[in-house]
Amino acid sequence: MKSKTADRIATGVFVAIAIIIVSILVGLFSYILINGFKHISWEFLTTPSSNIRAGGGIRDQLFNSFYILLITMIIAVPLGVGGGIYMAEYAKPGKITDTIRSCIEVLASLPSIVIGMFGLLVFVNVTGWGYTILGGALALTVFNLPVIVRVSEDSIRTVPRDLKEASLALGITHWHTIKTVLLPSAFPSILTGIILAAGRVFGEAAALLFTAGLSTPRLDYANWNPFSEQSPLNIFRPAETLAVHIWSVNTQGLIPDVEAVSNGSAAVLVISVLLFNLLARWIGSIITKKMTATK
Amino acid sequence: MVTTYLEKESTEQTIQTTVQLHMEHILKVHNLEIFYGEKRAVNGISMDIEKNSITALIGPSGCGKSTFLRSVNRMNDLIPGARAQGEIIYEDLNILSKQINVVALRKEIGMVFQKPNPFPKSIYENITHALKFSGLKKKSQLDELVEESLQKAALWDEVKDRLHKSALSLSGGQQQRLCIARTIAMKPTVMLLDEPSSALDPISNAKVEDLIVELKKDYSIIIVTHNMQQASRISDKTAFFLSGDLIEYDATEKIFTNPSVKKTEEYISGRFG
């Protein structure tokens, strides 16, 4: 009788925890969306922001967010997955590997503002670039690398050993086995890790304040020359992202419609992350299906 | 010049004929010891494996038979701390030597594992995976080899209409025959089978056994098994292992009817293990 009661209490507690988690999420989402949705319009998304007048949009901030995400991922994914492959397949157990692992863990727990300060020192001042997209992307790489390394290592390790042995026993080299057997099998979980990292990039403000800056030059979206000052594709220009914009209008904004802009931006940010998630998962499942011949 | 060449040829011929008088040996194991760290798992065994025959390795769990099997194509290299001493001679080379190209060795000495382990790819790709890696690119050649190896593995009729479906959609027995087929496709000389039918139902097991007997014509087979009936049904020679020692190695008929060592008899009749 006693253990039965305990069992009931446990069930009740866990159901309650689940309800709390879901209601926090639903509450947060609906708050952001209800407050922000009424400010979102085609005009809001397609006009540049204004420093003093009301009615500014977030065109450049939205583009910058996606562009910094892209640049960060181009740098961080190969490095991170490569590091994961090294840790899972090549690193021999021992002191050196343990040291590398603790370094990765420490890196993962660094506060993002500290990474921002480090970025200011190295990617802004030492390089002499000033505030740039590339500097921001590199700071975000530092910030995300540990997560991607960790996730890649874990996903490669969880591929059944049978599969690796099967491939090696057929006279296939280690590297080719990694490439054609381990990575495809680990792909779905690596992708999940990358999506999580991408979400963090999207919402990150502190690490970008001192690296990508708080301003965006006047952009000409018809100019696709990546070396031109006005080109949106130029990686050596300052770029304020959506998350940074929310912070800056709230703390130092002079515009009269601060609330509208920041609520609208927050809603756009949340929706973008959501869309990015769904899109990445959809593409990932297509790739997985193609690789594993399942329909 | 011509005479020396002829002379050489004639001596080679005599050597070959003398060898053929006896049974030809594909592998010669000499004083093989295998360690996992400090622990010795195989204690200096010596045995010659006959060509085009089935050699069964029997013995209780942990007796070193699988360890021995895995050392023949150097799969133990994957286990940190595992090392082997002694000799396994294959084509005049010591397999255990550091200079051996392990990748090339594994193409000649293939292995099938206890649990069916097809790649999560299509049936067709399971077989072409290794072929493509070894440089075969032409589709007609690949198609031919896929059909040939699936025929040999007695799987062709069951899968010919769904070659491009996932291999994981096959039953356990079919998966295991697919694993045998992909090993056959590499045209090895020796096949190592590590309890290949222990995870299968009796009907699939019978199919895999028939297949193994069939394969004897083209390959030399070493099979680890816990199933005494299986060993007596399909093998030509049987080796009995016990705690890392090779207790007895003889013709299967002799081992199962009139073993010379008492331990062997006790194990076979099920008194321990």
TrEMBL record, chain A:
Pfam families, alphabetized: BPD_transp_1 (PF00528)
One Gene Ontology CC term in the entry: plasma membrane
InterPro entries in the cross-refs: MetI-like (IPR000515), MetI-like_sf (IPR035906), Phosphate_PstA (IPR005672)
Membrane-topology annotation of the record: Multi-pass membrane protein
Stretches that traverse the bilayer: 12-34, 66-88, 100-123, 129-149, 181-202, 266-287
Domain called ABC transmembrane type-1: residue spans: 62-280
Main location: membrane
Alphabetic keyword roster: Cell membrane, Membrane, Transmembrane, Transmembrane helix, Transport
Gene Ontology molecular functions: phosphate transmembrane transporter activity
CDD domains on file: TM_PBP2 (cd06261)
GO terms classed as biological process: phosphate ion transmembrane transport
Annotated localization: Cell membrane
NCBIfam families registered for this protein in UniProt: 3a0107s02c
Protein family per UniProt: Belongs to the binding-protein-dependent transport system permease family. CysTW subfamily.
UniProt name for this protein: Phosphate transport system permease protein PstA
Protein source organism: Neobacillus novalis
